[in-house]
Specification:
The protein is α+β, with helices and mostly antiparallel strands and 192 residues long. The protein is 49% helix and 23% strand. Helix 4 (108-117) crosses helix 5.
């Protein structure tokens, strides 16, 4: 499986030496999974980081029996439960592949080896955690400042084919609205 996409993503975050890239390539495991495969099932501890070579993933939790969608990932993104992986604690969320997917994965033990051998791995880790934090901050700000229609439009701009990949219930959950409200928003959007 081609590692170029992953290398481009990581190199755009922090400059990486050839020695680090060579060591990383040796630790990568290419895998293919069917649609609806769970990469992570709460409360298991996340033991791998995944790079979506091809596919789409969604994370969700349950609260009072209701599924709450928290995040989406598309081809070319790193998929991980950051807190569970880096702190090695039980995950609160499930991560499900929403279509047949190809991934590159690296284990927690391999990541720890890279940390001990290459200082740039720690820099990369900090920058990735910062990006994760910024994503959470933007999502919170969007929930507080944007209308449901604006949040839906932003979601479509970032994930143009999402409506062909996940259910309307999942999209509504992510937006923090009911499926009925999403239907009204879509009708409103179609009129304008």
């Amino acid at each position: 499986m081609d590692t170029d996409g992953l290398i481009r993503v990581l190199s755009s975050i922090h400059p990486l030496s050839e020695a680090f890239l060579s060591a990383l390539r040796k630790k990568l495991i290419p895998l293919s999974f069917p649609k609806n495969h769970l990469l992570l099932e709460a409360p298991k501890v996340e033991d791998h980081v995944y790079f979506l070579v091809k596919g789409f993933a969604m994370s969700y939790t349950y609260h009072d029996g209701e599924r709450l969608v928290e995040k989406f990932w598309k081809t070319g993104q790193l998929v991980v439960s950051s807190q569970s992986f880096f702190e090695q604690i039980p995950a609160l969320e499930n991560i499900q592949l929403m279509e047949k997917s190809e991934v590159l994965c690296v284990s927690y033990a391999s990541v720890q080896e890279l940390f001990s051998q290459f200082p740039e791995a720690s820099h990369l880790h900090r920058k990735l955690l910062n990006r994760h934090y910024e994503h959470i901050q933007r999502r919170l700000q969007d929930m507080l400042r944007l209308t449901a229609l604006q949040r839906f439009q932003k979601l479509l701009a970032h994930f143009p084919a999402i409506e062909q990949t996940v259910t309307q219930d999942s999209i509504a959950s992510y937006l923090g609205i009911s499926p009925q409200s999403l239907s009204r928003i879509k009708r409103q959007q179609d009129k304008s």
